[in-house]
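Hi all, posting the design record for the shared folder.

TITLE: backbone redesign
STEP: 1 of 1
STRUCTURE INPUT:
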């Protein structure tokens, strides 16, 4: 599996992402060929080598004839959907643009279909989005990961006047994403750049330290300004140094011996509903041989504070233990299988390209069992067989792929 890891030590912007990919080996001629599929004119792209604090990088710039143009979200999406781009490039580009539109609509208390995008509604932003998605595909990247995002501080001028950094749209897009601010008085992270990275990095879950990989190439995308730090976005591309997918998660634990089991059950359900990856309990004996419960929560690093706050608010604990764990995982996806009961959601895992497990999603089979009066285990077994038969037929079994869990679309 080929990974692209973006090190956002000086923030992230759409043009910096494209510049980094070009610097890492993306051929400009190939990128222009993909952009020609947009079937829109009135712009050109310029690429040049430059330096920031002595480090060489590539500056990508979209030059347009537009001035202060805003488009509705529907217009922007239509430009991409009516293009001749490959379907997977269309789908990811539309997901990014719709994420931007939803955030802008929320901030301005407007309908998402009617919201007009100003700073991100021009051709330059559209080209940045499509170039990022198409460029990663041209480079053969299978997975995008990213570091914490440096956001900067201070104020910035926009069409609505002077606003704080991070800008409201940027900050909304950063919800659930790890960020840092180290006193640089500048806007380092833009809405377009954050939307691209967040959407492509597994819907916001692909943030953390650089994964184990065999480095093949590195590129630097240059920003427009000179800063006290190198105004660059670094991308490192390489092969995953493992046969399995890997990530890092937090293990948050506490011992409880003075709380009702009913409350513990409630807390477990609450944590799962708030996005914890897993919650489980273990019976333990505590001091003076008192029976107690070890409550363990697996969560993404960005969710650490929220999990700890819930444990302190909802339980009697006086403290929690926190550790970082590295996980290795089978390749997995969620698909929809046609069965005699109708479409059923199935979770599929693979090892070395072969199906390891195909497990029906519990709520899907539960609903069928209740509606039809069929034993749950019979529905489960039949759907599992149907899933394996469908997936073994031709590699995809005619299934319709659903977005990964937690992805923004």
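Okay, here is what came back for every position:
SEQUENCE:
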């Amino acid at each position: 599996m080929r990974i692209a890891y973006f090190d956002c030590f000086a923030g992230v912007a759409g043009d910096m992402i494209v510049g980094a990919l070009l610097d890492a080996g993306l051929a400009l001629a190939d990128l222009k060929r993909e952009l020609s599929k947009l079937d829109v004119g009135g712009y050109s792209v310029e690429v040049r080598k430059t330096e920031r604090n002595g480090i060489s990088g590539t500056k990508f710039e979209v030059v347009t004839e537009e001035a202060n143009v805003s488009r509705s979200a529907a217009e922007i999406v239509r430009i991409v959907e009516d293009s001749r781009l490959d379907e997977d490039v269309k789908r990811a580009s539309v997901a990014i643009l719709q994420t931007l539109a939803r955030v802008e609509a929320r901030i301005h208390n407007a309908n998402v279909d009617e919201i007009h995008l100003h700073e991100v509604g021009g051709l330059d932003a559209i080209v940045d989005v499509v170039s990022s998605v198409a460029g990663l595909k041209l480079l053969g990247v299978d997975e995008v990961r990213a570091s914490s995002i440096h956001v900067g501080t201070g104020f910035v001028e926009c069409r609505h006047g002077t606003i704080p950094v991070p800008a409201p749209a940027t900050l909304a897009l950063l919800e659930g994403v790890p960020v840092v601010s180290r006193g640089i008085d500048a806007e380092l992270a833009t809405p377009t750049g954050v939307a691209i990275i967040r959407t492509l990095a597994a819907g916001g879950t692909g943030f953390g330290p650089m994964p184990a990989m065999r480095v093949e190439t590195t590129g630097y995308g240059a920003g427009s300004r000179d800063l006290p730090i190198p105004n660059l976005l670094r991308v490192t591309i390489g092969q995953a140094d493992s046969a399995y997918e890997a990530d890092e998660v937090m293990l948050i634990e506490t011992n409880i011996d003075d709380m009702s089991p009913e409350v513990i059950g409630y807390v477990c359900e609450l944590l799962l509903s708030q996005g914890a990856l897993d919650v489980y309990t273990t019976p333990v004996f505590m001091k003076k041989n008192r029976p107690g419960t070890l409550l363990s929560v697996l969560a993404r690093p960005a969710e650490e504070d929220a999990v700890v706050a819930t444990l302190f608010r909802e339980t009697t604990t006086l403290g929690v233990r926190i550790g970082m764990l590295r996980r290795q995982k089978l390749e997995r996806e969620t698909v929809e299988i046609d069965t005699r009961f109708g479409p059923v959601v199935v979770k599929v895992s693979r090892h070395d390209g072969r199906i390891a497990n195909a497990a029906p999603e519990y709520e899907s089979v539960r609903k069928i069992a209740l509606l039809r009066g069929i034993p749950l285990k019979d529905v489960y077994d039949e759907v599992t067989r149907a899933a394996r038969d469908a997936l073994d037929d031709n590699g995809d079994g005619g299934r319709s792929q659903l977005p990964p869990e937690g992805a923004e679309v």
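COMMENT: The first strand starts at residue 2 and ends at 7.
Let me know if anyone wants the other runs.
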